Amino acid sequence: MTDATAVPAERHEAAAQTTIVIEEIRKRYGDRDAVAGVSLQVRRGEFFGLLGPNGAGKTTLVEIMEGLREADSGKVTVLGQQPWPRNVELLPRMGVQTQSSAFFVRQTAREHLTTVAALFGVGHDAADSALADVGLTGQRDVMVENLSGGQRQRLAIASALVHGPELIFLDEPTAALDPQARRDLWEVLRGLKRQGRTIVYTTHHLDEAEALCDRVAILVDGRIAALDTPHNLVSSAGVPTRLMIPAGRLSPEEALAIEGVDSAELQGGSLVLETRVSGQVLTAVDKLAGLNDVQTRTATLEDVYLELTGSLAGTGQDGDNDTEQQA
Q1: DSSP secondary structure of 97-123
Q2: Which of 44, 116, 224, 243 lies at a 20 to 30 A Cα distance from 1?
């Protein structure tokens, strides 16, 4: 086989491993670029996170992927097809959960799902399976209007997957949930990933993205500021480690004299040091003051996010004044 015939086969194999391909997508509202030349790929079976402040372009980008909005330029392919104009062939292959999900509130949870399933020509058994997937079997006969906020969020996710889609879009599914309900829903989402479903996920909870996502893209002013695994983003960002030393054990002046200490200041009952060489600084602190009750806080995805959004955000960002511009 020659190289000329091998290339198409390689391209076909690569295409089979991707669910979404976006190339130089742009969308403008008035004089503002909501999405400014974004390119990315979402792999099959991947849990992919989209992060960014309000107005960064997340909602617009997701709506373009879903076929709900037309891009001004660029190319988007979803499950091998173009989603715009509204592609009815893609509808049964995609599931969408939004923050404003609608319910048949006068029905039970199971009745609601059987109604949604019927719209896709799917049998009643699919409703029971979706309820089990999201941990709502025990609430199958509860009226939707009587479900808790967390249970409604689970039902919204069940509605997005009752017809067995390959690709699921989840828009801040844990918004407004208490910490325990959030953690419970994490397990539901991990279960979906174990089933091999591809998930595109937006959230403002950075701990959530770090715990769940295989890769994340951080959007700032309609552009991708970073795209990688959470671990790689944290490792490569050079965000300093913070050491908290009980006050009185070491003065700020003594701390600043330690090689590798970037800053030292008293905060409450602790002297807080920032360093990018924590091992070296801890060794020096041990010699000077001991390590009893010294606490270490390593960098997280939230630190990376705050550094990127703070340093790259443009001064012309309009925020959320226009619904179409929200992200």
Answers
A1: E-TT----TTSBHHHHHHHHHHHTT--
A2: 44
